[in-house]
Amino acid sequence: MCADTIRTYAHSRCLVSVQALRDNIAVLRSRMGPEAGFGAVVKSNAYGHGLDLVTQAIADCADIFIVHSYDEALRVRALVPQHRILVVGPLHREAIGEAIHQGIELTLTAPDQIGALSTALNGQKKHAIVHIKVETGTHRQGAHRTGVVEIARLAAADGRIEVRGVSTHFADIEDTLDHTFAQDQHRRFMDVISDLEAEGLAVPERHCANSAATVLWPSTHGAFVRSGISLYGLWPSRETRLSVIRDTPQESPPTLKPALEWRGTITEIKDVPQGGFVGYGRTFRCTTDSRIGVVGVGYADGYDRGLSNTAHVLYEGVRLPVRGRVCMNMIMVDLNAADNPQVGDEVVLLGRSGGEEISAETLADWMGTINYEAVSRIHQELPRLAVDNPEAE
Q1: Which of 43, 47, 70, 232 is catalytic?
Q2: Both 232 and 347 in a single domain?
Q3: In this structure, is residue 103 part of a structural domain?
Q4: Distance between CA atoms of 332 and 112, rounded to whole angstroms?
Q5: Cα 282 from Cα 301, distance rounded (Å)
Q6: Within a domain: 60
């Protein structure tokens, strides 16, 4: 997040390992063919890790940055003026002209978008660089087979619109050990590429490999992979890891390093007598005299209310249970097992302490969701601090 919107005096913060980010890219590149580039997906505040921090940390490791929105693209452009940037989200017509001026690559999903591009190009001396998204089975975003060819024809007829890439997105590659549907999607994708070639509309780049496909299927890597969750050291799913183990039994699965640690500060310590209630709704009652610590983080910061009376935090390698309901800006934790905690000390909400760990997967299980959401919903105004940055040494 931009410096002027970070909470200077926040009671929780994220530490991001730059070395882990760079090591993860090296591991992923080791599974990629020499022709494939590395596309770093930094949308949604770099999956909660901090868009500015991550972009700057890996600028020399990424061949192209991939974002969802034009607003994100502008932030990346300010940080890396010479890098390729691709917006994969919906086309915002009012921003097309500026995007073209900034050299930002756009994604097209329908033939009628060519008209908006043509209008925006009037008066400019630049070409628009676009990628056509193909609908192959996700039914979320993309043009069907005949629409892809029509978009390419209209772009060629305009003469100012360069179709640099064609892409698709897998609907079901992460949540299953049966990849038949994803393989069918890839076949349909390649059929569309054949259609374009037959029409004399060959496109130089194809890309469809998300994090799961990056580690599973070199045949899908194309011009570049689009690595999101794995860049940050997290597996797309348990099934993806099991698929790697099953399909390449002679190899060890890639070692990815989670890059994010989330910490909260103890802001108050209270002695609560046996029988005393903690928090809203009186959902927890102390069975013994207890020391309760108030930690400055809550559901407004992304620490889900579903973690109430379920989650633990870590303090000097000791697990401390969350007591009572998660509040908007605070949680309460049982300090009885901690060794002399003080106001101002930090607890680990996500990450390691001593021999204990609360992983993104564990936090997600407690929340009833996936690791993607557990990290990406951490409020973007909370500080993200880079640690172990080799460029700073």
Answers
A1: 43
A2: no
A3: yes
A4: 54
A5: 22
A6: yes
Q: Is 232 a catalytic residue?
A: no
| pLDDT score recorded for residue 3 | 45
Catalytic residue among 9, 133, 232, 280: 280
Q: Burial, 306: exposed, middle or buried (Cβ in 10 Å; 0-12, 13-18, 19+)?
A: middle
Coil, helix or strand for 327? coil
Specify the length of the chain in residues. Answer: 393
Both tokens of 321, joined, read 């249970």
Q: What is the tens place of the pLDDT at every residue in 303-321?
A: 999 999 999 999 999 999 9
What's the rounded Cα separation, in Å, for the pair 166 and 67?
16
70 classed as catalytic: no
> Mean pLDDT across the stretch 172-179?
93
Residue 334 — φ and ψ, nearest 5°? -80, 115
Instruction: Examine the domain organization and report whether 292 and 218 are in the same domain.
Output: no
Q: Please give the distance of CA 376 from its chain centroid, rounded to a whole number.
A: 6
Is pTM, for the whole model, over 0.70?
A: yes
Domain range for residue 351? 260-358
**Same-domain check for residues 284 and 242:** no
Q: How far, rounded to the nearest angstrom, does the alpha carbon of residue 219 sit from its chain's CA centroid? A: 23
Residue 90 lies in a domain: yes
